[in-house]
Write a structure and sequence with these properties.
Elements: E1 2-5, E2 8-14, E3 31-37, E4 42-46, H1 62-73, H2 78-85, H3 89-110, E5 118-128, H4 137-141, E6 149-158, E7 164-170, H5 174-187, E8 193-196, H6 201-210, E9 215-223, H7 228-231, E10 238-247, H8 258-270, H9 285-302, H10 312-315, H11 325-329, H12 331-338
Parallel strand pairs: 5-8, 8-9
Antiparallel strand pairs: 1-2, 2-3, 3-4, 5-6, 6-7, 9-10
Helix pairs in contact: 1-3, 3-9, 5-6
């Protein structure tokens, strides 16, 4: 396109998408060049592609962040929070990422040197993007299936204080089992009795990591066959349980996984991503991990356990106060620095 002003002529060279105005430097990069030309010569005077503006994210007010975090740990989905609080879903996910990383860091720094007598471990199932049976051969062949499909969260819980000592989210593999139990070993400083289900990698991992430093038993459950119409929606009926003592001398009355299995229900109730038969499942593995970290920090440090009448972290001697979201977000610290 050619524009003539007095004795000057502007030549616009454009792409297929067209342009708005050459002299406006705030336009999108649709112009490829702009020339100023008089009767004798043409000289290039400006580049069409303006410098991209730096992306800046609006910071949510503290009260709005607290509302979002409260909603997340009480079992609301991202879309429902977006509708209730009139906040974009992307902003909620960014806050979840920041809060999840901070929760994991606070857990790693505070939940250490634990004195425990009885610990129960278990895994809870969820999935990312699609269920395992829906993963196609190409994704399996090219190794793209590790972050999608079935994912398990390993949980270790103190049977007396109800403290979740550590957790790990990923595939139900031997490698993750070793990583999970090695983390448990580094956090607990006393001899304790460990109980798990009969997941095969547990015994080898426990034997190799703990040796004879703990007492270990497995609770093996034998399930019956369900009616076909009930199989998809309800758990199988337990016909009998078998107690298998494997290491040391575990006390029979404390061989149980009841408390950690009750924690599984708490997770399904308080994290929408774990609710079955919905479309609220995680689309990215990282977001699932952030949600799990946030949940367990809230459970350990902020939520009063009904039977204990205190938070698990208080009963375990990690802290003497009940944390709130302002403590978590560092609001009080910022106020003191401002003063």
């Amino acid at each position: 396109m050619i524009l003539i002003e007095g004795n000057k002529m502007y030549i616009f060279v454009v792409n297929k998408s067209g342009i708005k105005e050459c002299l406006d430097h705030s336009i999108t990069p649709k112009i490829t060049a702009c020339y100023e030309q008089d009767s004798d010569s043409a000289t290039k005077i400006t580049h069409s592609k303006p410098k991209e503006k730096e992306l800046t994210m609006n910071i949510l007010p503290i009260y709005k962040q607290i509302q979002i975090l409260n909603s997340l740990v009480e079992g609301n989905s991202i879309r429902s929070i977006s509708r209730m609080l009139n906040v974009h879903a992307g902003a909620i996910l960014r806050l979840l990422e920041i809060a999840g990383k901070k929760a994991l860091d606070l857990h790693d720094r505070n939940v250490v040197n634990i004195k425990s007598n009885f610990i129960q471990i278990d895994e809870i199932w969820a999935y990312v993007q699609k269920k395992q049976k829906q993963i196609d051969l190409d994704q399996k062949w090219y190794g793209k299936s590790s972050d999608i499909g079935d994912q398990y969260t390993f949980v270790a819980l103190d049977a007396e204080t109800k403290l979740v000592t550590n957790y790990l989210t990923g595939k139900r593999s031997l490698e993750n089992t070793y990583t999970f139990l090695r983390d448990l070993q580094q956090r607990v400083i006393t001899r304790f009795q460990l109980t798990s289900d009969s997941f095969k990698p547990y015994y080898h991992a426990v034997r190799r990591i703990f040796g004879n430093q703990i007492d270990y038993a497995q609770l093996h459950k034998v399930y019956g066959e369900d009616y076909k119409e009930e199989k998809r929606y309800s758990p199988a009926e337990i016909k009998k349980t078998q107690i298998i003592s494997l290491i040391g001398e575990p006390k029979l009355e404390h061989i149980s996984t009841s408390y950690v299995e009750r924690q599984n229900l708490t997770m399904r109730m308080n994290m929408r991503r774990f609710t079955r038969l919905t479309n609220a499942f995680s689309k990215k593995l990282d977001n699932l991990k952030y949600a799990v970290s946030l949940h367990f920090f809230h459970y350990n440090f902020m939520r009063i356990h009904k039977s204990l009448r205190a938070t698990p972290a208080m009963v375990a001697g990690i802290t003497n106060t009940i944390w709130d979201w302002e403590d978590f977000l560092g609001v009080e610290k910022e106020r003191k620095m401002a003063v």
